[in-house]
Design goal:
The chain has 216 residues and is an alpha/beta fold. Helix content is 19%, strand content 22%. The strands form three sheets. Strands 7-4-3-8-9-10 form a six-stranded parallel β-sheet. A two-stranded antiparallel sheet has the order 1-2. Strands 5-6 form a two-stranded antiparallel ribbon.
C-alpha cells in the first residue's frame, strides 16, 4: 500500500481490490439477501477509485446446483447436508446463470476492473472462496492470475463478510498474499455465530479488518 498526500492508504501496482459478489440476489429484494447488503455499493465504488487493479467475483450457478435446497425434496433453505466434500449449507436458489439476480448491483460502477471471476459454476460443488471451490482443493485460477500480475497484497470487500469474504480472505492469506478486509465495505449474514467466527479466524491469521476511512 502507498500513502497519498493526505495520509490515507491507496492501492499501488502490487495491490488489488477484490470485490466479492456484489450481486442483486445478495442485496435487499434478492433471493438470498444479505441485510443492508446494498450499503456496500457506494463505499466500494469510492474504494475502487484508489486502486489501479480491481477483480470482481460473481456467483454464477447452474439452475440445478447442488447447494440449492430445491434440489433436495423435503429440505428447507439453511439446513445442512453432507456433500462429497463435507458439510454444505442449503441455500435458496440464487445467482442462477443468466438471470437478473446474478447481475451485479446496478449502481456498482468499476469500469476499470480488469477481471470478472465467476465461481460456483460446477453443479456438484459450491464455491464460497474466490480462490478455491469448497473442496478446498480445486483452484479457480485466481492465484495464478494475481501472481502473473505481480500482486502481493489483496484488499477484500463485498458480500457476505462471514461467508465468501471470509473464505476468500483466508485462502488469499494461505496462498501467501498479504490480506486486508475493509469491514465497513462488507455486510454479513450472521448464521449461528458466523460473524464472530469470521472475526476469530481473521485474528488468528493476522488478517487486519480496517475501514474505508483508512483509505481517505
Amino acid at each position: 500500500m502507498q500513502h497519498d498526500e493526505m495520509g490515507g492508504m491507496t492501492g499501488g501496482d502490487s495491490d488489488v481490490l477484490l470485490v466479492i459478489d456484489v450481486q442483486n440476489d445478495f442485496c435487499p429484494g434478492g433471493a438470498l439477501a444479505v441485510p443492508r447488503g446494498d450499503e456496500v455499493v457506494p463505499i466500494i465504488n469510492r474504494l475502487a477509485t484508489r486502486f489501479p487493479n480491481v477483480v470482481l467475483t460473481q456467483d454464477w450457478h447452474p439452475g440445478d446446483h447442488l447447494s440449492f435446497a430445491s434440489a433436495y425434496p423435503g429440505r428447507r433453505p439453511f439446513e445442512t447436508v453432507t456433500a462429497p466434500y463435507g458439510a454444505q449449507v442449503l441455500w435458496p436458489d440464487h445467482c442462477v446463470q443468466g438471470t437478473p439476480g446474478a447481475d451485479f448491483h446496478p449502481s456498482l460502477s468499476i469500469r476499470h476492473a480488469a477481471m470478472v471471476l465467476r465461481k460456483g459454476t460446477r453443479r456438484t460443488i459450491d464455491s464460497y472462496s474466490a480462490f478455491y471451490e469448497n473442496d478446498r482443493n480445486t483452484p479457480t485460477g485466481l492465484v495464478g492470475y494475481l501472481r502473473e500480475r505481480n500482486i502481493t497484497k489483496i484488499v477484500v470487500a463485498g458480500l457476505a463478510f462471514d461467508f465468501c469474504v471470509r473464505y476468500s480472505a483466508e485462502d488469499g492469506a494461505g496462498a501467501g498474499f498479504d490480506v486486508v478486509v475493509v469491514e465497513d465495505a462488507c455486510r454479513g449474514i450472521d448464521m449461528e455465530g458466523s460473524m464472530a467466527a469470521a472475526h476469530r479466524s481473521f485474528e488468528s491469521l493476522k488478517i487486519p479488518c480496517v475501514s474505508e476511512r483508512d483509505f481517505s
